[in-house]
Every structure is written in structure tokens, then in C-alpha cells.
Amino acid sequence: MALKIVKGSIDRMFDKNLQDLVRGIRNHKEDEAKYISTCIDEIKQELKQDNIAVKANAVCKLTYLQMLGYDVSWAAFNIVEVMSSSKFTYKRIGYLAASQCFHESTDVIMLTTNQIRKDLSSPNQYDTGVALTGLSCFVTPDLARDLANDIMTLMSHTKPYIRKKAVLIMYKVFLKYPESLRPAFPRLKEKLEDPDPGVQSAAVNVICELARRNPKNYLSLAPLFFKLMTSSTNNWVLIKIIKLFGALTPLEPRLGKKLIEPLTNLIHSTSAMSLLYECVNTVIAVLISLSSGMPNHSASIQLCVQKLRILIEDSDQNLKYLGLLAMSKILKTHPKSVQSHKDLILQCLDDKDESIRLRALDLLYGMVSKKNLMEIVKKLMLHVDKAEGTTYRDELLTKIIDICSQSNYQYITNFEWYISILVELTRLEGTRHGHLIASQMLDVAIRVKAIRVFAVAQMATLLDNAHLLTGNVQRKGICEVLYAAAWICGEFSEHLENPMQTLEAMLRPKVATLPGHIQAVYVQNAAKLFATVLKSQEGNTEGTAAQETSQLMIDRLPLFVQSANLEVQERASCILQLVKYIQKLQQKDVEVAEEVCALFAGELNPVAPKAQKKVPVPEGLDLDAWINEPPSESESEDEQPRAIFAKEEPKHSRPRHTEVDEKELARRREARKQEQANNPFYIKASPSSQKVYQEAPGVEHIPVVQIDLSVPLKVPGLPMSDQYVKLEEERRQKERAEKKKKDKKKRKEKRSGRGKKHDSGPESEEDITPAHMVDIVTEEMPENALPSDDDEKDPNDPHKALDIDLDRPLADSEKLPVRSHRAAEALKSPAEDGEAESAAPPELKKKSSKDKREKKKDKDRDRKKSKEEKKKKKHKHEEKEEDLLGGQADEPVVQPEETSEVAALPSSTSAEVSDLDFWLSNAPVPSNTQEAATVAEAAPVPEAASCTAPDSEPDEPKDTELEETKSSKHKKKKQKKEKEEKEKKKKKKHHHHHHHSDGGAEESVQNGTVEEEEPLPPMSNYCLLAENSYIKMMMEDADQVNDIQGNLQDGSQVVVSVIFENKCESFLKSMEFNVLDSLNCKLQRPEGSGPHDGLTVPFQLPPGVSNEARFVFTVQSIVMPQKLKGTLTFIVKNEDSSTHEKLDFKLHFTCTSYLITTPCYSDAFAKLLESGDLKGSSVRLEGVNMPFHHLLARICFHHHFSVVERIDSCASMYSRSIQGHHVCLLVKTSDQTVSIDAKCDEPTLLGNVLDEIKQTFSQC
Amino acid sequence: MIKAILIFNNHGKPRLIRFYQYFAEDMQQQIIRETFHLVSKRDDNVCNFLEGGSLIGGSDYKLIYRHYATLYFVFCVDSSESELGILDLIQVFVETLDKCFENVCELDLIFHMDKVHYILQEVVMGGMVLETNMNEIVAQVELQTRMEKSEGGLSAAPARAVSAVKNMNLPEIPRNINIGDINIKVPSLSPF
């Protein structure tokens, strides 16, 4: 045995490690494959060893070989073995290998569940981290289901490192196991406000990813994200949020209105290009969503376009690219603003960078006008010639066609030019877009009557030179053009100069090599040509020529009769028989031309692309009914080749269960008549379609300008489009001259002139008349046509499963699966189970049964659940019955908050929705101040509430409240939204209640009073600091939640947020904030600046804009309130002048503002009081006329206390100062009298705090 | 979401591949080849975004890459990622490599692919950006390395000595790997 081990380790000495393997491979360049195969054999040997180190080494090497493309799935089991090693080193190798080569169908994955679970709960955070990382790559639906609960627990891990990984991986879990989304969502949402920026960023990441796919479910988070957006300084987070808003705005235009302002501010203030770019992008999305009815946003568009221009002009190609990309988004809705930058975009067409050229091409679409179309296309044609890669060239080709054909050839003034362009394009090597050119040719030839002569001549040349197009294999795509050429020549053969020659060209043996559908068109159109030829020949000579023609047909057609293509065969044999019959008649000297021509008489009219599909089904016709017996399945194997020009739209034949009343039927009949009148497919009495169009209502606006072709072009051979550019120029000049003349004439015979019929749009726009008219059938749709439902989602999209309503309360069945053995242990006390795993399931269960009674509130509660869960976890000793009671106790606590929210918008039934509505309804208020300020404005009461400082002086009517935050190690957590602050405190309150009930004093929980409690009035901590005609400064009091242990030694810092709002019409800049330091309290200035220097406010304020800046103060002693005098200086910049202004203000640091809301358990609280270190003091408030819970809420809110316990009209409260002083209150109330007994280890501080509390209540 | 991260050298040899969606090995190689083909024919002074990787993703996906000395770092991302953000992320990643390897060069990546993976795992997880703060990334990587060392590492000292001995005995061991000047020069770009 021992020998074996020794032998093993000696062997091991000669094992290759990864470096040896890599070196070896590099050394065997010639016979790499052979070398690697020997290495794999070695690895196989190594994997058979018992030594885990050897195995790990082998697996490590396999990971490398996997990268080189070798399949290593055979070692999957060994990888699992290495994963389960207890050593981190090996475990990490195992997980890495697994993440590289495991996937859903790897069967050993199911063996890993328990191992991964063990690793997830490992005390070593890196074991957990490695497991999470690995799992994120190979998570399967089974793993997701089994581990969802464990991962959810990790989302509340103490280490941020684990928290952020757990949060991120949840996204993968949701994808694989969508049922987990709803139970996990509350906690995920909670993580948006995690104190660690990494975790926060991860949560934002996940929610953005979720919301991108199903935005509507996340609309209710908009206020929260808005808050993050205005408070976060992490650009990654900002970018994600801003991108998310871009996805949300289309759903809620009010959101867009609200966003414009802060985004504009960001655009102005940020120096990070990435952020700037995303802001611009989202502003564009907003503008698109608002596109109508918001005239005053032209400034925003201008701003965006300007910023984009700067990007495009930048020498950095990346910025250039992105600028063009964003520009193309604006183009869709605001083409005018983009057009002014045409110069720049045309310049980009010449860029050496293909990506940039492609982007510029996209933009060209909106750049063209009648004037410059030819010039731009000429430029593009040059690029076509130069372009080497087919991708870019094809792109150019489609763009040329797009540009020219857009809005019914609106910008084409000379169609001969266009045809020549198309013909030139056919000379492209190896393009895939032959059919595109072909359909353009057909379209133009059919719709522009005047061009037919020219088109036919060109097409005849093409047919004659068909060998050029079909020459080599590479050109396959382009031969589609022949389809169009043949059809045009046949259909409009009367315009052909030499039909015989063309007929001959169409019957060449080489034609048989063309694709079937083209041959078919050839054959059919040869017949048409034949008819034309006969007609001309019979007219002038005696029968011989005509007979020769027939003979030609008879000679050539058999080739096609033998075709393998059914269509060709059928047509050819038909026509062959016909011609034989004709020949017989000719031999009898019968004149047949007339009759043959009659076969192809009648004109084809252009039809709107969807017209046929939209023709309403006549009543009584059931399209779904089988006419014959259903065919057997086997028929599908032989699929007909698809005709390229009949673009088959998937038929959406809906079952028509029609129970239509008479009226409806009559209406439909009427509609159908109308439809028929306009539908060119219905053959009408009048043979001239032209007339029909002119009579038809609704087409008068189409510019049909009958002008004679002033420049009859007879270009021999293939045309050169360039010639037209010149010719067109001449034509226009001539026209202009003529027009002038006409104008003069007109003026003379002013009254007598008949109302000229078409003097319409484009002409007056640019003074250019098109050389040819375009017949356009306006797309007539049946009145009852349903909007097309073509854009159905991909059923395989994994995100479809995540389209889940997150506001609905959780049901019993939705709880995450918990390991069963645990559940069994805890059967008696589900709460204990919750404590171990996460309290979610039992908690939720109770909840939902409760919810039945109070349906309208359950949304709100659902939202809170996560927090409650977390709270509950802390209660280690819950027992079942008490928990049930606790569940009831929830309600009173939740109630006031809910009602307060409802009070804000009383009409709403659902607090969640009302929240959003309320939030959104405040759109016009400028950015940062919004939430709090609007609340303050909306409610009549709150000013009173917001004035808290006790000794406000008469010369300074508005009070300030300061807030302190701690910086250094502890991250600040800012809570701007007053509502949410309240929420949080409420929750703390709730928590304490709960705790209390656990303690055994059930009767103290006021079950009965719930419903009667009045809503809390809104409260705000924003208050005016100073104001003049230029600027308004508002202080903001943010809530502090961090514990402070880490911060006690290094002095105390207080952060003051000031909102600056520009009230005037001018631009405010160079703002400088300065205060006169006192001994006790100093403004923190950057290093190197003197003690009296001001701080520059890091932004400028355009008119009407507000922004927030934060200033850090160092405070020595906190027992006394402080007052600091300060000045804000700034420059007011008008168009013509700029003045220097200043504004004085006083900052109040109340003692309250040094307190931090700190939760406290009742037992700890009791201990604290028992310790005897605290000195007491008390205060009585008379005439306080408000419900007790309002009173408590006020103390909580304004003075940063938290409720420890509440029994009827008596409550104990706790808070702690930033320097660690404990402050305990016992608040009692009876008949408008409130007595507060207080204890604190610092009597001066306590005295001041009590004074301040008194002040608060004396003001209301 | 990031769909894939590929690092290959000027000749298209993969140095690290990390797919966040499963592809079979041959498909992976094909994607690398295609990506290399697309990226390598571009000049250094053109933009770093590229559409048109047909094998991976589709119209929603972009290739965002940077070229450092002999190596291409290519990220394939969808439209939820900020283009410039990813460029910065690549920079952060490379700077992190530079810190962890002290003047990173292609050889570091060749011989320590596993370590590069571990570093990458601290930056991107499951296709989502995990951490962008370089100091945090380096700190976590170092803590884990330290932990590995305390466990004795994969190839503990004796094994290493042996491999050195082996190398001396083998004539074909490359003494003259042309290390040359292939250090990845990390330009100091403006911070994010």
C-alpha cells in the first residue's frame, strides 16, 4: 500500500503540468495533433489515479486542450470529482473546467447538485464564489430549481463579494426556472439599495436585463430607478439605468417627460463619453415616444444632434461610429434636424473605416432630396466600383435602391436615369441582390408609363447580352434581372424597336440553363413577343416572314418542353401547340395576328402590396372549411419552388365566427364596393386605368404631372447614368426658365386661368418637376382590416417565460422549493425553517391567506414582503402561534403607510399603481428636487412638518435641516424619496412590533385599531435654505441607515445636500459655495485650498434646471446645535451680459441631524436602560392634536428615531448619534398631552434634542 | 449580456476563450476563426465595433474589440451593453492582467491560461459585468492566490523542481522562445 503511494508520487513527478503541456505543444508545431493525442492518453492515465492532485492537474490540462478545440466531455465525471475536492485550489480547477465544457445535456451535472449546495453554504467565501461563478455558466433547469432557494439566501450574505455574485446569478436562475422570479423578486429589488455599490450595480444589471425583455412588468420600478439615476455616481449603474429607461419610455410617455430634464442635465454635466452617449440615446428614445404634441422639445433634439455632431467630428473612430448610430435613430422621427448635418454625413461616406461608411449609408436615406439625389447616388456608384468586399457592396446596392425608391420614388425626377442606374448595377459581380434590382425594374416599368419605351429598349439590350449576366457561376444572383427584362420586353413589346431580334434572343438554347422560374417567364413572354411580331409582319409583307417566325418558335420551343421544371414544361407545351395551330392557319393564309394578340390583351395595373390580403372575405364564405376531403400528410415532401416575386406572406386566416347583424353587413358591403372601385384588380368598364385613377377619390394629391419629354434620350447600347446628371441639370434650368415665363403669363391672365389640376406638393417644395409621372395606387384597406399581427414573438425566446406580473401577490404554490428533509424537521415550526433557509415560504403562505380579505392592498404588501422576510430572519425564536399573531400584527403597521400613499392619490385602488401614477403626474418639476419637493408641494400641511429646528431666527424664515452621512469605510446610502424613508421607518416600527409580540405581550398589539388609523400626512425634509430672484437653494435631509461603529474614531462627518434651482431665464455658472467655518464645524475643502476658499459647485445651471451638490462638513462636538453663515456666489449669464451675484444663507446643524436611525431590540433596549449610565430628562407637550402613530412617525422621520416597542398609547423609541451616544425615549400620550421621558448618556445633547422635538410639535 | 469573450493573437491562435452560451467545440473554433477573420483585416485606426459575426448572435450582437500588441481582446455583446462601456471594461481587464502578471505579455497568457480565467471570473460572471473596479478585482484575485498558496498550490515546489530537471534533460525544450518585445503595452487611457 505504502509502496503504491510512493510509486504514485514518483510517477507524479514526471507528469506534465499545464506549462509543460503548453511548451510541448509549442515544440511540436509540425505534428501537433499527434503530440496532443499522446498527451490525452497520458491525461487519461492520470485521471485513473486516486490522487486528487494528479486528477486536478489533468483536468487543468484538459481545460487548455478544450480551448484548442478538443472535445473533453468524456472527462466530465473526473471534472465533477475535482470539483468536489475539499481544497480550494482543486475545486477552482474543477469548476473552471466545468464552466468551460458542461452544458445542459451533460448528464453528470445532476450529480453535482449536492456538491454545489455544499459549496454554496461553505464558510469560505471563495468556495462559495467559485461555485457561483461556475454555476452561472452551466446552470440547468434542474439545478436552478434545486438551488434557487440557496442562492436566494446568499443574496443576503454578509459579504458583499458573495451578495453581488448571488444577485447576478439569479438572472440565470430566472431564465432556467422562471417560477423563481416572483418569489425572489422582492429581495432582488431590495438589493437595488444595497449599501455596497457592487451589489447595487449587480442588482441594477439583473433588473435591467429582465426589464429589457419584458419592460411593462417593470414600469412600477421606474421611481426607484429614477432615484438611483439622480443619486448614483457609478457610471456603470447610470448607463444601465439610462438604457433601461430607454426601453421603458415607449410604454409610458409621462415617464419620458419626467426624464428629459435630468438627462439633459447629465448631458451637460458629464465628462464621460459613454454616459453622454447613453443619455443622448435615451433622450432620443423619449423624443420618439413623445414624437407628437411636444413642440417644446425641439431644444432637446437640437441638443442631442449637436452633441452627436461633436461625436461624429471627433477623431476617435469609435465616437464617430456611435454618433452616426444614434443619429440614425433621430432620423426616423426628426429627419429635419439631421438633414442640416448632411455635409458631415457625406464626408463620412469617404471614411476609410467600413463600419463608419455603413452607418453613414444608413443616414443617407434621410438626406436625399430631389436636388441632390442624383449627385448622392453618383457618389455611391463610385463607391460601388471601388468596394472590394461583397458585403459592403451589397449594402451599397440595397441602399441605392432604398434611397431612390423611398416614398414612391418621391425624389426621382428622371426615371431614365434611374433605369440606367439599375442597368449599371446589373454589372456587379456576385451580388446577392439580383431580385431586388429586378423588382425595381418591374415596378418602375409598370408604374411609370412614360418610361416604358426607354425601359423596353434597355431590357432588350440586356436580353441580347444575357450571356454577360449568366457568364460565370459567381454571377448567379444577378440573373434574376433577366426575369424582369423578359417580362418587360414581353408585356410592353409594342414599344420594341426590333421585336424579332429580342424574340430570337429569348429563345436561345442557353436560356435553358437559367433557373426554372426565369425560363417560365421567358417562354410566356416569347409568346407575347410572337404575337407582336406576327402583327407587324402580317401588316406589311406577305405570309412568308410570319411563317418563318412561327417556324422559329416551333424549332426552339421543344427545348423547353423537355425542361425538368414543371412550370416551364407546361407553358412551353401549351404554347408550342398553339404555335403549331397558328402555323396551320398561316399555311391556309388565314390572318391570325389579331386573334393571337387578343390572347394577351388588357393591361396590368399596379396594386398596393397588401391590397389582396386585405380584401375582406365576402359574407357566407368560410375560408377554413374544406372544399374536398383533407389531403393526406404525405404530400408535403415535394415542395413547389417558390416564385421569387410572389413574396408569400404567411396567411393568417382567422376563423370567422360571424354573428354579424344587418347593419354591419350593409356597412361591409359598402366598404367592399368602395374597395372594388379603387382596386385595380377588378376589371372595370373603362379600359384606361389612367382615367380610373384620376376619378378615384383620394388620389388627387398624387403628383401626376403630364409633361412631354423635353429631352428624348436615345442612348445607344447600355446607358450611362452619369449622362443624366448633366442632362437633368439642363432640363431643370430649362424648366425654371419656362416656369418663370409661365408665371409671368399667369400673372397677366390671372383670373381667366383655369384652375390647373395638379400643382401639388413636391413641385412647390423644390421647384423641380419630375420628368415622368408615377402612377401610385394608394393602399386601400378594408375598413375592418385588423392590424397585422405579423410580429409575433419567437416562441423559443427564453425570456418569454419571464413575462411575469411581478406586482401580483405570491400564492402558496409559488414558493421556492426547499429541501424536503429540512422541511420535515421543521414541520412543527415553519418559522424556524424560514430562519434557516430564508423565511419566505411560510411567511408568504400566511400572507396570501390574509390577502384574501384585503385584496386591494395586497400589491403593496407584496412589495414589502422581502423586507419583512429579512426582518423575520432576525427573529430567531419565533414560534408558530406567535408568528400567526405576528402576521396579524403586520396589518396595523402596514396600514398607515398604505393609506398615506393612497391619500396622495385617493382615487387609486392599488397603492403600487397609484405610486407610479402619482410619481409620474409630477413630471414638470425639475430633476433632483422632484420627489420630495413635489410631495411637499402637493400636500398643504407639510411645511409645518418640515420645519423642525427649534431656534429658527426671525431673519431666516425657512429652516434648514441637515443630514449627516458617514463616509469613510461605510458607504453612504441616500434616501431621497421621503415616502420611502417613511416606509422604511414604518418597517422598522413593524419589526419592533413583531419582536414585541414575540416577547409575549400579545395583548399590546393593537389589532382592533387598524382600520381607524388615519393616513399620515406627507412629510418632507427638503426645506428652503435661501432664495432670490435668480436661484433657490434647498436643503435636503436624507435618511441615514448605516451603523457607525467604524467611524467613531476619525471624527464625524456630516454631508449636506443642497439643491440649486435656477429660477431665472439666464444661465448660471461659476457657482461657488462657501461658509465661514466655526471652531466646531468646518467645511471640508480639497487639499491645498485655504480655510476661506469656496468650493466650486461642479455644474452649471441652464434656465429652469436644478441640480444637487453635496458638501461635507467635519463636526467636532455634536452636543450643541450649530449655525454656519455662508455665501453662494455665481455668475448670471445673459445673451448680452453677465453679472456677478451672491446669495447669503445660514446652515443649521440641529442636534437631531447628528442622530442616526438605528434599530434596537427591546431586550437590548431594556439592558441599556438598566445599565444606569444614562441620564434622564423629560418634556411635556400640550395640545398636540394628532393621532399617536402620526406623532411617532413624525419623531421617527424628523428626528431619526426608531420605534422599539409600542403598547397602545405608549411607545419606546431609540436613536444613536454619530458619535455613539444612545438616546432613548418613552413617549406617552393622553388627551392631547404628550409626555416624553428621555434618557441619554450626554445630557446636553438630550436637552437640545428634546427642545427640537418640542419645536417640531409646537409648529403643528 | 456578454455572449463570449475571445482572446487570440495576431495569427488567430486562441489564448483564452470564454463562451457564456453553449457551443460545441468545433463551433467554438469556427467562431474564433470567423471572428479573427473579421477583426484581423481591420486597420488599427478604425473603430472598435464590428457588426456581422454571423455565427454568433445575430443582428442584436456586436463585436467590440481592442488590439494590444500581439493580442486581440474581443467581446461579443448584445445591445444591452454600452459600447464604450465595454471598451472600458476591456481596458480594465487588460490593466488588471498587467497588474497581476506585472507587465503582462502574450507568454503570460499562454502559460497561465487558468490564471487569466480566474481573473476574468472576477470581472465578468455568466455574461454579466460583475466588477469594474480594478483595485477590487486585483484584491480578490490576490486573496484567492494567497489561499491557493497556503494550500500548497497545484504544482507544489517539489514538482516544479522536477519539471525543471526534466526540462534540462530534454534537448528539444525551447531555450529560445522569442520573447522579444511582445509585452502588451497598456496605454493609459482616460479613465471611465
From TrEMBL, chain B:
One GO term of the biological process aspect: intracellular protein transport
Cellular compartment(s): Cytoplasmic vesicle membrane; Golgi apparatus
Record flagged with keyword 4Fe-4S: no
PROSITE patterns: CLAT_ADAPTOR_S
Annotated membrane topology: Peripheral membrane protein
A GO-annotated cellular component: Golgi apparatus
Function: Part of the AP-3 complex, an adaptor-related complex which is not clathrin-associated. The complex is associated with the Golgi region as well as more peripheral structures. It facilitates the budding of vesicles from the Golgi membrane and may be directly involved in trafficking to lysosomes. In concert with the BLOC-1 complex, AP-3 is required to target cargos into vesicles assembled at cell bodies for delivery into neurites and nerve terminals.
Family membership noted in the UniProt record: Belongs to the adaptor complexes small subunit family.
Name under which the protein is recorded: Adaptor related protein complex 3 subunit sigma 2
UniProt source species: Labrus bergylta
